Amino acid sequence: MSLYLGLLSGTSMDGMDACIVDFADDGRAQLIAQHTTPYPDNLLAELRALMHVDAVRAMPRVARLDAWLGEVFAQAANDLIERSMLKRSDITAIGSHGQTLHHDPHGDYPYSLQLGDPHRIAERTGLTVVADFRRRDIAAGGQGAPLVPPAHAALFADTTETRVIANIGGIANITILPPKNDPATPVRGFDTGPGNTLMDAWTQRHLGHAYDRAGAWAQSGQAQPDLLARLLAEPYFAQVAPKSTGPELFNLAWLQARAGDLLDTLPAPDTQATLLELSAHSLMAAIEANAPDAKRALICGGGAYNTALMQRLRALAKGMLIESTADYGIEPAWVEAMAFAWLARQTMLGLPGNLPAVTGAKGLRVLGAIYSAH
Ligand SMILES: Nc1ncnc2c1ncn2[C@@H]1O[C@H](COP(=O)(O)OP(=O)(O)O)[C@@H](O)[C@H]1O
Ligand SMILES: [Mg+2]
Predict the structure, then answer these.
(1) Test site for ligand 1: of 44, 167, 196, most ligand atoms within 8 A of the Cβ
(2) Matching fold, domains 3-146+334-371 and 149-332
(3) In this structure, how many other beta carbons lie within 10 angstroms of the beta carbon of residue 53?
(4) CATH topology of domain 149-332
(5) Of the residues 14, 36, 199, 213, which should be mutated to test ligand 1's pocket, given the most ligand atoms within 8 Å of the CB?
(6) String of b and e for 87-106 (b: at least 16 CB within 10 Å)?
(7) Where are the domains of the chain?
(8) Whole-number Å distance between alpha carbons of 326 and 142
(9) Which atom of ligand 1 has the smallest separation from the CA of 214?
(10) pLDDT higher for 59 or 98?
(11) The pTM is what?
(12) How many CB atoms are closer than 10 A to CB 366?
């Protein structure tokens, strides 16, 4: 038995996912405890506010938020350990992704900034923490994202068939998994574009809810082909991989700029329906173009619970099966946090965590830094 604890909050900022994973010696992973802690309202408000102020005024707020988030992540880990009834000392390490504040792998000094002071997590939990996974890949010339594909391979690769894993979080990413009996073909993957982030933002603006449960509001409207065409004209969709993106690009200002006058003339539910269609189209187009021979796509991330989105994916899939990772033994909500437990284990074993064919890094790298328990 070797236990690792994964801590993750994605761009949706819907809550901190904490999970404990048991890895067998051969690497097989089993999820044995899990819990989501929502961010406190004042923390969420500060995170959202900070994304809209200029850098100089933000400096002390960023530094304070790093410490605050460290405490909150540590609490999430401690809560889960208590609930799980496991012995703390049985957990080898915590893999903490941190909260992304900004991701820009394109500039003259590319970066990806995650907050959530790992020192505090180590101090409050008494456990070794592995964190800061993305920056090593970026230093090696990569995008620093997506990092989940090798974990997807460990969890879901099949012996004989090519399959796709699609993680629909705030941003959507895909992993194309060649069969295990074809080790010469590399695992590929990239961010396809918006997952839930635009739908969430539109729902927050018009309904005041965090998200559109089951996509019901979207289903009350009609997707508008003119608007969809304008949104799909975004150059990111046509870029070749490696590529990664975030809410820095796909946000309501982007929607306003792309949609122009159309946005003011359409009923809000029609725009929501079109945003759902945008997520479905951009994802399926990426799968079709990059994995035409895949038999099935397994969906994970919060988007798997959006039944309207799942319906549209199935309608667009042209014969490819669209399934949930739940059908393969892992609830969609836990795959990404499990991936950070997996990444922590790689680092602790001195093994690489990135895939150069995915991120574009110059080579395999052991990711992150180790913050000792004592
Ligand atoms: N029942 C549901 N119906 C519709 N959407 C859902 C549901 N549950 C979760 N989601 C969506 O999933 C998002 C969270 O997904 P998650 O995988 O945690 O993303 P991230 O990795 O960005 O945090 C929510 O913001 C919401 O948009
Ligand atoms: Mg989340």
Answers:
(1) 196
(2) yes
(3) 11
(4) Nucleotidyltransferase; domain 5 (3.30.420)
(5) 14
(6) ebeebbbbbbbbbbbbbbbe
(7) 3-146+334-371, 149-332
(8) 31
(9) 3
(10) 98
(11) 0.96
(12) 16
What is the number of the ligand 1 atom nearest to the C-alpha of 196? 27
Which residues have CB under 6 Å of ligand 1? 9-12, 14, 169-170, 196, 200, 211-215, 301-303, 305-306, 336
Question: How many Å apart are CA 193 and CA 314, to the nearest integer?
Answer: 18
Structural contact between residues 171 and 251, judged by C-beta atoms closer than 8 angstroms: no
DSSP annotation string for 295-331 = SEEEEESGGGG-HHHHHHHHHHSTT-EEEEGGGGTS-
Nearest alpha carbon, ligand 1 atom 19: 169
**Which pLDDT belongs to residue 56?**
60
pLDDT more than 90, % of the chain: 95
For 191-244, what is each residue's pLDDT tens digit?
Answer: 999 999 999 999 999 999 999 999 999 999 999 999 999 999 999 999 999 999
Nearest ligand, measured from the Cα of 213: 1
CATH code, 3-146+334-371: 3.30.420.40
